[in-house]
Each structure stands twice: as structure tokens, then as C-alpha cells.
Design a protein that fits this description.
The protein folds into two domains: 203 residues, no CATH class; 245 residues, Anthranilate synthase (4-Layer Sandwich), CATH 3.60.120. It has a 22-stranded mixed β-sheet that branches. Helix 3 packs antiparallel against helix 9. Helix content is 31%, strand content 29%. By secondary structure, it is α+β, with helices and mostly antiparallel strands. The structure holds the ligand C=C(O[C@@H]1C=C(C(=O)O)C=C[C@H]1O)C(=O)O. The ligand C=C(O[C@@H]1C=C(C(=O)O)C=C[C@H]1O)C(=O)O binds next to strand 11, strand 15 and strand 22. GO terms for molecular function: isochorismate synthase activity.
């Protein structure tokens, strides 16, 4: 794997140089053999020699139907990076693993630096295969933490990007496989041919590994019974621990005390935020909690994910592994941004209520939410911010004046989709840099609220409420917000949930809302709670 450094060999090219495509059909019988592959790679090597540096080569192939999650689970190794995202209601899933090229950045320039890395990588990339196929070509799997900077020792960088060695994606009933590799002017050609040919064979006749996919479980309760002291991946005291060796609902006394104290810490933070709102420091702030739990055995991120994708069909079920044994998983309801065919899609999602047990209770709760002045105000802050932040880019946004409802298995939200044509001069990352973090997860005014989040929360957010997604070689891509999530390491999980606070919010109700939001992940990790 190569780590990219910003050497600025090319000045900012605008618009970016398109990726070079060679007119070779890798699926044609004449090409699908090692000798033809060798010729092709020799050609790539000549192109690498011409510029005096390695070139990223990306081969796209349509393959027989595959489930990308099953492929990733079959090949899963905890020492490798991976990215997985699926939204069943939109009928797509994408998986990628093993970094061929990676990049990280931090601070306020992280979006601009990422853009430069992507442009420079694509300027040197060579692609073959069906470019019209969905998810063809190299993809930049990307994660931005909530804050511009992360704290030392956090498992994910403040901006982390990788291009996977292999990628499998499904849209409807079509599956594409992409192999990416670097060809250096002096790469040993035979070894390269062998490696790429093996990958080709593997994905055209993929066999799932049903028995041993890495051990661990998607849940189960802890049986070790000793210390409920949380393992804290960030080296701080955790908010609350649910060491789940007790049956759900039967918390030990110490655990109950820890949960009660976490609850009162949260209520106190909300009360303080309400004072700051009354003082005019800001109008909205989103305050979150972290909850640490422990399972009976190692938690396998992809097995947990299988439960999430089944229960939350209209969310992004995702897993991001850092290759050092930690993964960040979730079922996020919130699209931050999608860019496709010159159109940008984003949304305001804020204002929450529980689901009802019956159709009439559910409809009544939804109706109340749609009329609730406090929730509508909370929602409006997000919509206004999206409009304010995107307007300077010259976007003409269209959205409806009144929000609708997004109904998830455990909770319902006020929802307003926002759409615009993207001017050719505006890039996905320009829009993302302006949108993130929206007041759905930060606050308004942005800077004043965000500064207080660090003060009022006593755990690092990391990727919680961050921006996670991918960018393709044509400038399209999709990002969602890191919500309804957990950070997994071995048998430990840290769950995150927050709620928007505005004048009129009640500490008790906000606490209940975070419990509701924890539920999705807690159930996926430990079974019914
Ligand atoms: C902050 C979270 O969710 C966000 C906050 C919401 C709210 O305050 O009503 C609703 C949806 C999300 O935008 C979370 O899930 O942790």
C-alpha cells in the first residue's frame, strides 16, 4: 500500500483532468486470458514510464450476481481496511477492501486537501471496462470526523480516504467488480499478471466462504461476568457501561448506577445548553451521549450489519474498518449529499418522535410531530442552514415548504429533501465542505454551537455525526451522516446517540430521544432489549 503525500506535482487543474480510458474490453474472450492481460499491463507500464511514476490501473468487469456483503464477509480479515454501504430501499450495495492507495489529512483544509489528492490520483489513472456501468472505475472511500481535528489515539483520522484493491457493487440485479492496482515503471510484470489474473478468476466465479468468516458473533450477551469497567478506546471514562452478562433488562446494581449517572450528566448538559440558548449564545445545539457495552464474544461488524440491513431497509447500513481491529458501523437514516448526473441531492432531517404500537397511535404521533412548533423550529434551522451554505456556490435549490415524515423501525423524523442542478464548476467536495456539519448534528450558528459541543460532551465524537461515503472517477458520489452508530473493537462497543436542543426542549424528553436512537444498534448488537 502506498501512502500519498501532497507533493503538488500538478497545479490545481480546473476542471480536473479526466481519467485516461483505454479502449480494451476486459470481458471479450480475446482479452480474458493471461497473455492478453500481460500485453495490457505492459502497455500500462509504458504509460507509467512515460510519466516517470506509478499509475493506478482500474479494471471494471460485469460479473454474475453477487451479494457484496457476503463477498466481504467471505474475504474478511480484521487486519485489512474495508468499506461497506448498502441502502436496500434504493437497491444498491457497495463493498471494497484492502487499500492500494490511501490518504489522510486534518484541520480546516482537509476537504481541499482531499480534493487535490483525488484529482492528482485520477490524472494518473488508467481505466478499462464498461464506464457506463454503475460503480465502475476506482472509488475513493472517504470518512470525515465530526470535528476538523481528532484527538490523539482516535481510531479514525479526521479525513481518511482509500482506494480498495477490489470492489464489488450491486445495483438492482447487476453486479460489477473492480480491481485496482498500481503499476510502477519497474513493477515485475509476471508477478503483476499473476495477481490480477487470480483476482479476475476469483470474482468471475466467486465462492462464498460459509463456514469460517473470521469468528465472532453479531451479538449474544457477555458471560465473563467480571469488571463492568468500560474499555475506553479513547482513554477516557465512558459515560455508561452495559456489561451485558446480565439478561437484557436485568442490569446489575453497579451498571444501573452508572447508567443513572450518565443520564443525569446528559440532563445537566441539556440544562446548561438551554441556559446558553437563553443567553443568546446560539439557537440550536445537538448534544450526544456515548454508551459502552460488552458482548459475550468478539463482535463481527459484518454480521451485525446483516441484522441492520434487514431491519433498516431505508437507511444506509455501513461498516468502515481501519485495518487495526476497529470498525465503525451503523444504520444511518441521513443522506448528507448525493451527486449524480449533474444533480445534487441533500436533505434536512431533524425533529423526532417514537413510533406507535398501533397504526392509529403511530399516525397520531406522526401528526403531532408534523404540527409541533419546537420540532418544526429544530427542523427549520437545518433547512435554512443548507440553503444559506449552498447559495454562495450558485445552486438553485428546490424543496417543499413543509416537511414530511421519514419513518424508521424505531423512530420517525421530520424530513425535507432538497435538490439542485450542480453547476459544472462546483465539485462534490465543495458542497460537502460547506454542508458539514449541518445543524442536524452540530448547531446554529455553527461555530458558536460546535465550540460548546466539545465542552458539554465528555467523549470524543470521532466519526459519530461525521461524513462517510465515496467519490467516483466522474466526480459523482454519495455521503451519509455517521448516525445510529457504534465503534467496535473485539467484544466491546461504544454506541452514540444525540438530540437537537432548542429553546423549549426538555432535558427529560431529549434523554428519552437518545435512548430511542440507541435502540437500533443496541438491538443489533445484543439482541432484543
Ligand atoms: C443526532 C442524531 O440524529 C439527528 C438529530 C435528530 C433530532 O434531533 O431530531 C434527528 C435526526 C438526526 O439528524 C443521532 O441519531 O445521534
Amino acid at each position: 500500500m502506498q501512502q500519498f503525500s501532497l507533493t503538488s506535482r500538478s497545479e490545481k487543474h480546473f476542471p480536473p483532468a479526466p481519467m485516461l480510458h483505454l479502449p480494451v474490453d476486459p470481458a471479450a474472450p480475446a482479452n480474458a486470458n493471461p497473455a492478453a492481460l500481460r500485453d495490457f499491463l505492459a502497455q500500462c507500464q509504458a504509460l507509467a514510464a512515460a510519466v516517470g511514476r506509478s499509475r493506478l490501473v482500474s479494471i471494471t468487469l460485469e460479473v454474475p450476481a453477487l451479494d457484496p456483503l457476503a463477498v466481504l464477509e467471505s474475504i474478511f480479515e480484521s487486519g485489512e481496511r474495508h468499506f461497506y454501504a448498502e441502502r436496500p430501499a434504493e437497491n444498491f450495495a457497495i463493498a471494497g477492501a484492502e487499500a492500494v492507495l490511501s490518504f489522510s489529512a486534518s484541520g480546516e483544509t482537509r476537504f481541499a486537501d482531499s480534493r487535490r489528492f483525488i484529482d492528482e490520483t485520477l490524472a494518473d489513472a488508467i481505466g478499462v471496462g464498461d464506464q457506463a456501468a454503475a460503480f465502475s472505475g476506482p472509488h475513493f472511500f472517504t470518512a470525515y470526523s465530526f470535528f476538523n481535528d481528532t484527538e490523539p489515539g482516535e481510531p479514525f483520522e479526521s479525513a481518511g480516504i482509500f482506494i480498495p484493491r477490489w470492489q464489488v457493487a450491486r445495483v438492482g440485479d447487476r453486479t460489477t467488480a473492480v480491481a485496482n492496482f498500481l503499476v510502477a515503471p519497474d513493477s515485475p510484470l509476471d508477478a503483476l499478471v499473476e495477481k490480477v489474473w487470480r483476482a479476475h478468476q476469483k470474482f468471475t466465479r466467486f465462492e462464498y466462504n460459509v463456514a469460517g468468516s473470521g469468528g465472532g458473533s453479531s451479538g449474544g450477551l457477555c458471560g465473563t461476568g467480571d469488571s463492568p469497567v468500560p474499555h475506553d478506546p479513547h482513554g477516557r471514562d465512558a459515560h455508561a457501561t452495559q456489561s451485558a452478562h446480565a439478561a437484557p433488562g436485568e442490569l446489575q446494581t453497579r451498571e444501573r448506577a452508572a447508567l443513572a449517572s450518565a443520564s443525569s450528566t446528559y440532563r445537566a448538559a441539556v440544562t446548561r445548553a438551554l441556559e446558553l440558548i437563553a443567553d443568546g449564545d446560539f439557537q440550536k445545539i445537538v448534544l450526544a451521549r456515548a454508551k459502552d457495552i460488552r458482548a459475550a464474544e468478539a463482535l463481527h461488524p459484518l454480521r451485525v450489519l446483516n441484522g441492520l440491513r434487514q431491519r433498516f431497509g431505508d437507511c444506509y447500513s455501513f461498516s468502515l474498518a481501519n485495518g487495526r481491529g476497529q470498525s465503525f458501523i451503523g444504520a444511518s437514516p441521513e443522506r448528507l449529499l448525493r451527486v449524480r448526473d449533474g444533480r445534487l441531492l441533500t436533505e434536512a432531517l431533524a425533529g423526532s418522535a417514537r413510533r406507535g404500537a398501533t397504526a392509529s397511535e403511530d399516525a397520531a404521533l406522526g401528526g403531532e410531530l408534523l404540527r409541533n412548533e419546537k420540532d418544526l423550529r429544530e427542523h427549520r434551522h437545518v433547512l435554512d442552514s443548507i440553503v444559506r451554505r449552498l447559495a454562495p456556490l450558485g445552486l438553485q435549490l428546490s424543496f417543499s415548504e413543509k416537511p414530511g415524515l421519514r419513518r424508521l423501525a424505531n423512530v420517525q423524523h421530520l424530513h425535507t429533501p432538497v435538490e439542485a442542478a450542480l453547476p459544472p464548476t462546483v465539485r462534490l467536495l465543495d458542497a460537502l465542505a460547506r454542508l458539514h456539519p449541518t445543524p442536524a448534528v452540530g448547531g446554529t450558528p455553527r461555530e458558536a454551537a460546535i465550540a460548546r459541543i466539545r465542552e458539554l460532551e465528555d467523549f470524543p465524537r470521532g466519526l459519530y455525526a461525521g461524513a462517510i461515503g465515496w467519490i467516483d472517477s466522474r466526480g459523482g458520489g454519495e455521503f451519509f451522516v455517521g448516525l445510529r452508530t457504534a465503534l467496535l473493537e473485539g467484544d466491546r462497543a461504544r454506541l452514540y446517540a444525540g438530540a437537537g436542543i432548542v429553546a423549549g426542549s426538555s432535558p427529560e424528553k431529549e434523554l428519552a430521544e437518545t435512548e430511542l436512537k440507541f435502540q437500533a444498534m443496541q438491538t443489533a448488537l445484543l439482541g432484543e432489549t
